[in-house]
UniProtKB/TrEMBL annotation:
The active site is at H44, H133. It is an enzyme of class 3 (hydrolase). This is RNA 2',3'-cyclic phosphodiesterase. Gene3D superfamilies: Cyclic phosphodiesterase. Hydrolyzes RNA 2',3'-cyclic phosphodiester to an RNA 2'-phosphomonoester. Signal peptide: none annotated. Belongs to the 2H phosphoesterase superfamily. ThpR family. The keyword Nucleotide-binding does not apply. InterPro entries: Cyclic_Pdiesterase, RNA_CPDase. A motif (HXTX 1) lies at residues 44-47. A motif (HXTX 2) lies at residues 133-136. SUPFAM superfamilies: LigT-like. The lineage of its organism: Bacteria, Pseudomonadati, Atribacterota, Atribacteria, Atribacterales. It comes from the Bacteria.
Length: 187
């Protein structure tokens, strides 16, 4: 194993959710060809990103994820709203966010993860305003978008059953994800 790896902790999505998201993405690609659209198999909800995770920390993260798996039961969310970062006038990322209750629980999971990472002195790309979301596309240049353009999205129920540490290897044809640690949520 190399000295450091590019990695992230995430909730993977079930196949039926990936299918529904992909159908939506396929409809949008023609309208927004300048977007770099997420591959169907790569849909997930990122909790923490590690641009350069020291390889020895993988075992520490395994312990943290096992703690989360014992602490939090599997739970349902609704992929509900289409949103963008940073703003509709200058969109760089198009995403789908969670309903209120699902968002609240996911933020609790993320805060517990962040606390454990701090205690273990594991550096991550800390986002002060964590917004639970599934990325659909990225735009190299800011784009003016309108929320009304995405009315074709229907809320989608999803159950988070596991939490995973993925390694992300960048290649010319896009990132390749490999599961390093996979822990079921209790229940």
């Amino acid at each position: 194993m190399r000295e450091s790896i590019r990695a992230f902790v995430a909730f993977p999505l079930p196949e039926e959710a990936k299918d529904a998201l992909w159908r939506f993405v396929e409809k949008q690609k023609g309208t927004y060809p300048q977007g770099k659209w997420v591959n169907r198999d790569h849909f997930h909800l990122t909790l923490a990103f590690f641009p350069a995770l020291p390889s020895p920390c993988v075992e520490d993260i395994r312990e943290i994820l096992e703690h989360l798996g014992c602490t939090f039961p599997s739970y349902g969310v609704i992929l509900e709203e289409i949103g963008v970062f940073p703003s509709w006038q200058r969109a760089r990322v198009l995403w789908v966010g969670l309903d209120g209750k699902g968002k609240t629980v996911t933020i609790q999971v993320a805060r517990t993860l962040f606390q454990k990472l701090r205690e273990a002195c594991i550096p991550w790309d800390e986002d002060k305003d964590f917004v639970p979301h599934v990325t659909l596309a990225r735009f190299r240049s800011p784009l003016a978008l309108h929320a009304t353009a995405f009315t074709g999205w229907s809320p989608l129920p999803v159950v988070f059953r596991e939490i995973v540490l993925f390694q992300s290897t960048l290649t010319p044809s896009g990132p390749v994800y490999h599961k390093l640690v996979q822990v079921p949520l209790k229940g």
